[in-house]
Write a structure and sequence with these properties.
0% helix; binds zinc ion
Length: 117
Amino acid sequence: MRIPARMVPPFSAILSRNGRQAKLVPTDETLVNGSISWFVPVLPGSRRRLRVLCPCGCRGVSDLFVLSPGEDHPTDEHAIVWRWDGNVEKPTLFPSVWMDRACGWHGFLRGGVWESA
Ligand SMILES: [Zn+2]
């Protein structure tokens, strides 16, 4: 499965309960699966985020914390972060993305395209 990651303006999501797991659900029904938006940090020390609408169609949302090129990994060993190649329009992230707060979809974002693992 290859799905283009369409860049969209920041979109909101609502938190709902799905059994024991929290699931984030986008409020905008018009968003295309695999859409992503940037959240640029405002407060000092806060991290750049990429918000992802799951490519699989489950309408789950995940927020990924990303490191800019050359940025050091946080000293907090529990921090989960992705390396970003610096391309804003067609980003590549490393390592792979696991939608662990949604459906469990696993795949890659390379050159602005989602690809199942
Ligand atoms: Zn999904």
